[in-house]
């Protein structure tokens, strides 16, 4: 997580430094500064640009913004940059005395509610959460989707789910995955009519007349290709394999290959356009991978790369599994295999 903090008084700067130090110790990136000489202290840099410029840059780069000062300043500053609850970062406000931490924007999908609780616990403040489901202690589907790293396919349906829950109407639940622990009382696996939630990597299956799809991001694409293969050829085969397996593109978490392909232009461009992390492994690392049922080996590939199969081995290595969801498919100098990371639904 990357958090941006700005303070407007010397007292606020003290809290900013305290929060920054804790979050950095946890391995998070934290951009921290103060506004004006009156707020200087505790080793924080003074902001050398306008507040609006700072906010615009942080909106693009960070997962969360914390204003330590008046809520009005935060509201006026972020207003030009608000786009959608699906993409806006978490925005919080804390008073300079550390009494309250307010979840101001993107409480659920952006994680502001959870972040407000974390920071409040850290400084001994009261978290102020105003979203209806949280205020009523009810299940929140968008907060659940964010926490479980799922793609939520319809914000309008998510709003309807929240509205029905607040009206004490039960929502149906379908899951392709094992559910660990109790299911929230607002949901029922017995209910088959009306509005329901589907947890699956298949976005085309509608178990309810009106289905809100939650897609866990657990799929790993293992890809191999000939040198100079264009991005379009890679994308064509990936899309073909996804369709054949009824696997949503939103389920893809990462792409993996051999380190010989770490700068392969077509593969790098594919990952960039699909906004996917690209992991590479050495031939030695890939040779250590095991697969239930064995691999589709090629002596030619072994001669070139040092292992007899790149796509299957890299998919399993990145997923931490021994079982393939889709074995090697080859076309036009491209090979694709898919592995699914281990996943269990947890409402806790």
TrEMBL record:
Name of this chain's protein: Cobalt-precorrin 5A hydrolase
CobE/GbiG C-terminal domain boundaries: 220-339
Cobalamin biosynthesis central region domain: residues covered: 140-216
Domain of life: Bacteria
Pfam families: CbiG_C (PF01890), CbiG_mid (PF11761), CbiG_N (PF11760)
Keywords, sorted A to Z: Hydrolase
Presence of keyword Hydrolase: yes
GO biological process, one term: cobalamin biosynthetic process
GO molecular function: hydrolase activity
PANTHER family tied to this protein: COBALT-PRECORRIN-5A HYDROLASE
Taxonomic classification: Bacteria, Bacillati, Bacillota, Clostridia, Lachnospirales
Domain Cobalamin synthesis G N-terminal as annotated: residue spans: 54-134
């Amino acid at each position: 997580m990357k958090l941006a903090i700005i303070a407007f008084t010397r007292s606020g700067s003290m809290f900013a430094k305290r929060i920054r130090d804790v979050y950095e110790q946890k391995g998070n990136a934290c951009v921290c500064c103060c506004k004006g000489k009156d707020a200087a202290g505790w080793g924080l840099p003074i902001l050398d640009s306008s507040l609006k410029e700072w906010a615009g840059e942080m909106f693009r780069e960070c997962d969360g913004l914390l204003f330590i000062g008046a809520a009005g300043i935060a509201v006026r500053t972020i207003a030009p940059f608000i786009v959608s609850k699906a993409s806006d970062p978490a925005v919080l406000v804390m008073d300079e005395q550390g009494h309250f931490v307010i979840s101001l924007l993107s409480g659920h999908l952006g994680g502001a509610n959870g972040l407000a609780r974390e920071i409040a616990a850290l400084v001994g403040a009261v978290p102020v959460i105003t979203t209806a489901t949280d205020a009523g202690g009810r299940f929140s589907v968008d907060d659940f989707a964010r926490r479980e790293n799922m793609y939520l396919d319809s914000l309008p349906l998510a709003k309807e789910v929240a509205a029905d829950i607040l009206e004490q109407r039960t929502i149906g639940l379908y899951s392709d995955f094992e559910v660990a622990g109790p299911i929230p009382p607002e949901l029922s696996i017995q209910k088959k009519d009306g509005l329901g939630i589907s947890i699956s990597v298949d976005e085309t299956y509608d178990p309810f007349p009106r289905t809100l799809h939650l897609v866990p991001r657990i799929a790993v694409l293992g890809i191999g290709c000939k040198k100079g293969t264009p991005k379009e050829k890679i994308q064509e085969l990936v899309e073909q394999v996804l369709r054949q397996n009824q696997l949503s593109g939103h389920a893809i978490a990462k792409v993996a290959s051999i380190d010989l392909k770490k700068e392969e232009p077509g593969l790098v461009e594919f990952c960039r356009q699909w906004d996917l992390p690209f992991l590479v492994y050495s031939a030695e690392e890939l040779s250590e991978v095991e697969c239930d049922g064995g691999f589709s080996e090629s002596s030619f590939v072994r001669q070139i790369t040092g292992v007899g199969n790149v796509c299957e081995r890299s998919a399993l290595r990145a997923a931490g599994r021994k079982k393939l969801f889709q074995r090697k498919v080859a076309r036009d100098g491209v090979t694709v295999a898919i592995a699914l990371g281990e996943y269990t639904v947890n409402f806790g």
